Amino acid sequence: MVKIVCVLYPDAAKGHPTSYARDSIPTIASYPGGQTTPTPKAIDFIPGQMLGDVTGELGLRKFLEDAGHELVVISDKEGPNSALDRELVDADVVISQPFWPAYITRERMEKAPKLKLALTAGIGSDHVDLEAAIERGMTVAEVTYSNSISVAEHTVMMILSLVRDYIPQHDIVRSGGWDIADAVSRSYDVEGMQVGVVAAGRIGLAVLRRMKPFDVGLHYYDFHRLPKDVEEELNLTYHPSAAALAQACDIVSIHTPLTPATDTMYNADFFAKMKRGSYIVNCARGKLVDTDALVAALQSGQIAGYAGDVWYPQPAPADHPWRTMPHNGMTPHTSGTSLSAQARYAAGTREILECFLEGRPIRDEYLIVKGGDFVGTGAHSYDVK
Ligand code: NAD
Fold this sequence. Notes:
Elements (H helix, E strand, L loop, with lengths): L2 E5 L53 H6 L3 E5 L8 H6 L4 E4 L9 H5 L6 E4 L9 H7 L2 E4 L5 H17 L1 H9 L5 H4 L10 E5 L3 H10 L5 E5 L6 H6 L2 E3 L3 H7 L2 E4 L13 H6 L4 E5 L8 H10 L2 E6 L30 H20 L8 E4 L2 E2 L1 H6 L4
Bound molecules: nicotinamide-adenine-dinucleotide (NAD).
């Protein structure tokens, strides 16, 4: 018997949904580039229904209990007496999500001697202490690509919303107003602007592809260069650093994983290098950005607008300055947990668990850390050695 502790965001205050806006979601068999969507042996949920909250349980309970395993699903994750700390001590597997991150620290690992697998139901395993996991020989896996396109769509929405200044215009309508001069006083067209992504992995490249029809100039920086045919197809300008890209762009979208090398790399120095009136979108991780320096750059007008769905810490406290800073288009951490994305990462979580429980290899692209080193996607995207 294996004990699996699963930390998910709480049900909505009004309760787990009992009806849905749509009856079904499209079936997607593969991602750009050909990687197949998750291939568990079966699923016990209806795609398009809420799976990511505590009641949704990622649709895992029947499968795990039928096989004689123990599943504990909780949302209480903060502080030394949290349910997470109590349940983790004899757990074999912990499942957590970036949206409601259960920080799997070295200290927590040390109190959980049986812990063998930290599984991210989504993408981005920075909430796990990867160095500690390497030292302990633990496996860290995530459902690579499961919500990359979801995030790319959210990013494009935010780029358009910021540049056209959509949210204040909508607020005017909701409050019964019609002050067009005020509504357009910060509104521009995206057409002709220079748009850059820092990191052109699965999400960054999908953002570039989606922005191409807007007739913008496209730029990227990544420490892995894209294939030449992709650079030519999208007419990309490659920059040797994030700072060089920022100097050339009007809009910068951030898509790097959070690692020791990228922690707060978007700081006062970085903002000062950007053109006055630039826009930044960050759907990668909140801690990539210096919280107070960003507020100052928006207040001074150096940055014209900032949007994203990632914060530090999460959940963001009620007085987090990014909730009220000028010209922000923030959302809670939602881009990768649309109902569509949930179906894929729930199926991928089950696929990984099936492999783990049956002693079969986990797909290479799902692996971040295994056998004492970065492997698979971890070796490509996280290893900064
Ligand atoms: P990916 O592994 O496909 O791509 C990551 C890219 O980052 C790689 O191309 C890698 O070469 C590049 N990179 C890493 N460190 C870099 C650095 N210091 N400088 C330049 N490039 C660097 O991952 P992805 O699917 O595109 O996801 C990217 C990140 O987005 C994740 O790590 C995660 O933090 C975040 N994410 C957020 C959400 C959300 O809901 N907001 C969902 C999924 C992923």
